[in-house]
Amino acid sequence: MRAFPRLRWTPRGKQRRRRAVRLPGAVLVLLSCLTGLTAVAALVLCARAVEDPAVKARPAQPASLRHATPRQAARPIIVPRSAWLDATARHTQPPPRYDDKVVAVFIHHTDSPNDYDCADAPRIIRHLYAGQTGARAWDDIGYNFLVDRCGTIYEGRAGGVDHPVTGAHTQGFNHRTTGIAAIGTFTAGVPVPRAMTDAIAALAAWKLGLAGVDPRSTVSLTSSNSLSRYPTGTTASLPALSGHNDAFRTTCPGAALTAELPRLRERAAQLQGRTPFGTG
After folding, report:
1. Is the pLDDT of residue 251 over 70?
2. What CA–CA distance (Å, rounded) separates 213 from 208?
3. So what's the pLDDT on residue 275?
4. Model pTM?
5. Could you tell me if residue 280 is inside a domain?
């Protein structure tokens, strides 16, 4: 209900009054006291190419959530860490680290078996976490998100899925990026489940849309480690939706998943409401 008459503009810019809705006096008094409402938008890693976050990540405060814009895709359903990180697997870790925003997404595969039941995905993620925080002595799992073959998206690294959490997934390029890992091994000839790629596209569209980034564009990123394809301090132009092998000498995310990247970019752009290139 509205406290005032609703106005509609005529083609010539004149206002036409519609019948006002009468509200009780007490409600009008209450409404007059309000100043307005503000909506808040509310491992075994691929081929040895991950950066230890305890050494390279810089502390920062999480960026505030932005209001929705025409280029922001809907947030997909994301299963929280609590679904796979049980009390026996937890270890003491420092507070999360953040960047100012996410301008690129790197796609990985976990280099693990493909013939799993999707109900076992939490156990698989827990195993990856144990390997990275145990044998590798990292402070947390490196990937920001993981996606199983049924298209279920899981929160990986701690810090809040809405925030630009600094990951540990792509040597030299963990800042201002998000790492999405497909659970499985996707070398040449291995089928990539459509449910998985659809979920990855939806997740990439949402994360990049928060910064207004077109998934088909190229972005500038600065290498923080010479073990990447670029010497430390080099500014590299990379696809906004990249494979791990775009930034590091590795076969990850596998030839089959790499071949899906052009379609992933187009699908993510579509989910952001963008028109195909060359159509206006």
Report:
1. yes
2. 5
3. 85
4. 0.76
5. no
Residues above pLDDT 90, as percent of the chain: 66
CB count in 10 Å sphere of residue 240: 23
Between residues 13 and 244, the one the model is more confident about = 244
Domain co-membership, 88 together with 220: yes
Tokens 């870790």 map to which residue?
93
As to burial, measured by CB atoms within 10 angstroms (0-12 exposed, 13-18 middle, 19+ buried), residue 59 is exposed
The average pLDDT across 226-241 equals 97
Query: Which CATH number characterizes residue 57's domain?
Result: 3.40.80.10
| Sequence-ordered strand ranges (E) for 4-93 | 7-9, 15-17, 78-79
In the chain, how many domains are there? 2
Whether 104 and 211 share a structural domain: yes
Q: Could you tell me if 29 and 86 lie in one domain?
A: no
Please tell me whether residues 20 and 158 are part of one structural domain. Answer: no
Tally of residues, the chain: 280
Structural domain including 128 reads 43-271
Round to whole Å and give the CA distance between 231 and 245: 16
Q: Is residue 49 part of a domain?
A: yes
Lowest mean pLDDT among 50-64, 103-117, 191-205, 245-259: 50-64
What Å distances lie between residue 44 and 8, 169, 211, 227, 253, CA to CA? 60, 11, 30, 18, 13
Q: Which of 67-71, 202-206, 236-240 has the lowest mean pLDDT?
A: 67-71
CA 77 to chain centre: 12
Nearest-CA neighbor of 257 among 199, 177, 170? 199
Domain identity same for 32 and 93: no
